[in-house]
């Protein structure tokens, strides 16, 4: 009985595959936030239309949502596969 208790203590909650998907998801989320950054203007009286670019409005938020989906999959995936 003590051996069973000891082996339960040393097991991880997730498997290697889960952690790989978590890292991939984190990288996709980080890339999305990096693509969202910038587009401001040094002078507050000057409007910079670059803030409404396709990259900041469509691509970056889509990458963040995809990254969150990958994270959810990594948490729910069976670690024994």
Characterise the protein shown here:
With 81 residues, this protein is mainly alpha-helical. 64% of the residues lie in helices and 0% in strands. Helix 2 packs antiparallel against helix 3 (54-76). It starts with a helix and ends in a 5-residue tail after the last helix.
Keywords for this entry:
81 residues, 3 helices, single chain, mainly alpha
Summarize the structure in short.
The chain is an all-alpha fold and 81 residues long.
Give the arrangement of secondary structure elements.
Layout: H1 2-9, H2 16-36, H3 54-76
Helix pairs in contact: 2-3
Q: Mean pLDDT across all residues, rounded?
A: 87
Overall strand count: 0
| Spans of at least 5 consecutive residues with low confidence | none
Number of domains: 1
Distance between the termini: 27 Å
Strand content: under 5%
What is the CA-atom radius of gyration, in angstroms? Answer: 20 Å
Please tally the helical runs, counting DSSP H or I stretches of 4 or more residues. 3
Classify the helix fraction into a percent range: 55-70%
């Amino acid at each position: 009985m003590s051996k069973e208790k000891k082996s339960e203590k040393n097991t991880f909650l997730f498997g290697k595959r889960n952690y790989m998907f978590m890292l991939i998801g984190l990288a996709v989320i980080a890339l999305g936030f990096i693509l969202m950054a910038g587009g401001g203007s040094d002078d507050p009286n000057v409007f910079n239309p670059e803030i409404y670019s396709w990259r900041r409005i469509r691509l970056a938020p889509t990458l963040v949502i995809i990254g969150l989906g990958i994270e959810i999959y990594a948490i729910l995936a069976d670690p024994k596969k």
